[in-house]
Amino acid sequence: MTEEKVGVYVCHCGHNIAGTVDVEDVAEWAAGMPNVAISRDYKFMCSSLGQELVEEDVKEYGLTRIVVAACSPHMHEPTFRRACERAGLNPYLFEMANIREHASWVHTDDINAATEKAKAIVGGSIRRVMELEPLEPFIAEINEPTLVVGGGIAGINTALEIANAGHPVYMVEREPSIGGHMAQLDKTFPTLDCSACILTPKMFDVGNHPNITLMTYSEVEQVDGYVGNFTVRVRKKARKIITDLCTGCGDCWSRCPAKVVDDVYEAGLGYRTAIYRPFPQAVPKYPVIDVDTCIYYEKGTCKACQKFCPTDAIDFDQEDEIVVLNVGNIVLATGYKLFDARKVPQYGYGRLANVFTSMEFERMVNASGPTGGKVLLRDGVTEPQTVGIIHCVGSRDRSYNQYCSNTCCMAALKFAHLVKERTGAEIYNFYIDIRTPSKNYEEFYHRILEEGAHLIRGRAAEVTDAARLPGEEGKLIIQAEDTLIGKQRRIPVDMVVLMAAMEPYDDAVEVSHRFGIGCSEAGFFTEKHPKLDPVATMTDGVFIAGACAGPKDIPESVEQGAAAAARVLTLIGQGEIEIEPIRATIDEDRCSGCRICNNLCPYSAIEFVEDLGVSRVNPALCKGCGTCVAACPSQVIEGQHFTFDSIMAQIEGVLYDRMEDTERVTYLGSQPAEAK
Amino acid sequence: MASNGKPKLALYWASSCGGCEIAVLALHEKILEVADAFDIVFWPCAMDFKEEDIKAMDDGSIDVCLFNGAIRNDDNEHMAHLLRQKSKVMVAFGSCAMEGCMPGLANFTDREQMMNFIYHDSPTTDNPESIEPQVITEVAEGELRLPAFWNTVRTLDQVVPVEYYLPGCPPEAKWIEVAVGAILSGELPPPGSVIGADVTVCDECPRTKSEKKITRFYRPQEIIPDPDICLLEQGIFCAGIATRGGCGALCPQVNMGCRGCYGPNEGVIDGGARLIGAIGSVIEGRTAEDIDAVLDTLPDPAGYFYRFSLPHSLLRRVHLVNDNGRNVAQPIKEVPRLDPSLNE
Amino acid sequence: MPEKNYSEINPAWEGRKPVIVGFLCNWCSYRAADLAGTSRFGYPATLRDIRIMCTGRLDPTFVIKALREGADGVLVMGCHPHQCHYDEGNYKAMRRMALLRRTLAQLGVHPDRVQLGWASAAQGALFTETVTAMTERIAELGPLEWRDTIEDIAPRTPSPEIEEVAHGK
Hints:
The structure holds three protein chains of three kinds. Chain A is α/β, with parallel strands linked by helices. In chain C, helix 2 crosses helix 5 (124-141). Helix content of chain C is 43%, strand content 14%. Chain C has seven helices and four strands. In chain C, strands 2-1-3-4 form a four-stranded parallel β-sheet, sandwiched between helices. The interface between A and C is large, with 60 and 58 residues.
């Protein structure tokens, strides 16, 4: 075996590191570590000159392993791995020592402490790099079809972009129709164009696209595999409708005697029947039978829909169907749900009749909604004379959600306009700050101001029907501090609209597990990088778009949908992808078959081979987390690149100044006596 | 070699129970072959030799020394040095010499606390005059000496270099035969080798194993185990998953969980840590409270995990604190519980 | 944050400061530490961290090894429950750490020396707070110095003469 030669490079990163860490001292110290053949400090290691320095040294001095002490491996590990590769070194014989984020930037006022810590980190890396083994990346082929989960505006755009590029797409939507929240809206800000008018054609395209297989009223149950090769189990819930026969004529729902409150599409403001199509423009056109409210399933008789169906398309015995899809990429565009305004009792939603949520109001102003587009109080006849609109309900509030819900300011301004347009009522908006940062949004805000809406800067404290002052009887009184004039105000109104926050769905965490991606504390899916990689996730081949990753308005969701499609198309175009070879392997000759590891794997990558009595890792499924490695009581599972020996060596390295005069571990067995 | 051409063999017991000596005798009729093949020069348990006889021998003149027992006192240590000096090949014979075994459990305490308990505080002690053994006692006939008791039990290889290890409490006859055979044939494994299996007890355990999920542990008296199913899966602590095989899974075959006497598997540095990793992997519970509830059914985990291997583990013994020049053991009495804030 | 004089908290620190070995998961806590850096959140220079892919990879041997080789404490940090990049690795770490801390307590390692915590990639501040709080706790507990335990430095025999006698010198 040839002698190992380690090259150590300590980066100044301008002043970022050198300002706090004595980089010359670290480099000089590193030169004295075992196996270190060369140790340098350099201004900017990530510059092309810095990278060339490594490459030249590898050639000139025959370096076999490289340590770069600079920034986080999440920043430049790929950069230096490529440099190693160019120099003819296996890229996995490189180790990054993070002395910037983890040392110089956090110990800025103590050069001694920062330098000492930098040495510990570099010491760990030098010991670790000696234990690393050359690895070859796996090549995974990319299956052409893509799965898009969620048929809102983000998902629709993703699907259309990919399908239009000529690749097959499966779209899975939980509800009976695609369209999402956008289909519920009347007008869209700031242009005030009709939501349905711009959405319906896109929905139609999805429903009729030769490359799109639409699966509504369906949910993803299980996802296995990895980028390029996912196996997805989809449950198609029984519609109780034979879609091949159904023409969508509507004879069934017009005859259905069961009327139920429509909590989904009509936001609880209107009714639907037990057999229903959520809205006239629904795609697909087929209705579904809601078995929870259908009289037949409760009492065993009725079947009105079946009697009137001209094509015999009703099938009460239809059962759920499981479909297994093989796809190369997945885009999650699962959207958001509205914050439950009942959680803010002081605003009285659910208790005071004329307090409405923003989505109820959307349905009210929608021409196809329950009031036919009229703004009416809960009695269904009275037009309000004054309307209060309360911003930031359930957002920008530590008790509920700390984040800004992003879209509500503009929606509230839009509401102010619509109320004015439909009723001429006086409008009071209660806001903390008005946030209108996108194109033409600020202009829209000024337009609303000019239309005469009153904007009061102050979070509303309370909505009450307890009249105290003249003119308050029979009204809802909004109490708020007007922070611009520094006075408490009580504004009597007829109607209150609560701008409820956008929240992740309750099952967002579960969904994130199912797809193997991260999820923020609030429940929004985590992007790979919030700035530089906003639609990718930590899991290769799984992308996110739209409000499932955080509150977004329509233009942003559309952009993200298209961006996710672009990322997918890149992978499809490449045809294959390199996967990091960080995997677990079992030494089958020494596996005793205890089966401790068998049910630990989150990806079910470990199978027990009965006839051999050993466990085996399927490298295609393994993602290298190492939980089985830590569990193996025989210590015969090894985690590549994070091997037992490499971490043990790193521990000794980081404790370089604590280890002196301490005898080394005596291995029981395998080590020759002289080595002890 | 002796003048008769036979290799010279020494057997010695340090801090041990004598079981290893019996294990040698358990070779049954093969013991005659051993006696025939070797020139036994030292075996205090069975034959009348004196320390002086060994001292008189040339350095390295003993071909093989089978040394059993841990290093508990200065006499053990002295004999280890002496026999090392006189022997070409030193074999740590049995669990005590190899990894500390039962004597090593004393590393959960210290000398002083042990003496106090044994000679004063134990419920069955009747010692009205508070007599304690002394290293030197003056009597009319002169000075009596007892070996000085160390604070910490050590293994043979922590005192002198060791060529081979023969695990087990005691080692099974078949592995003694393998060792003896290897010595006689001269086909010795590389120095530092453990003469034994490189798989764990599960490999030879006939019980059916499947995926494991432990919701609580049972002490042996609390449950009648199913004779065919993995004991661990039934909640009975069994160290077999992390214990070097070679014994033939003797204990699990009689419904007792493996105690771990063959020590950790080949290449493992700390057998207790492996058991923690493995057992910690298969217990149930997704909240701090639930996990602690499962673990409350496993009292004395360190005793289970380091029953045989404490002196040879990474930490070797309970923490010592210097108390006026004496090193005193300081275990934490309170059972640590997980912080419920980890649930969020 | 200027270096504290730890010997004011516990005189046994004379001449050195606490050393904590950290095991941070690649996806959450390591990135939280990165974010603490990017945000210039200062914390005591006591933590020496090692990146592992997941807290599920944390072999208890690593913790014990660090304590033996001179660390005064070990901090393991992973993703919050439900947020593990590998689904459940943090739960596995929690179970193993529970068992490890019980075992180590019997061996005299105070449970506060071996801590488990969570920080998401967005929680640089929480990471900073955790390291600071743990450093303060270790400062109170004093140095561990397992080396002294291993070597059992105090006299093993009642007196040197007896050692000579016993060894037949």
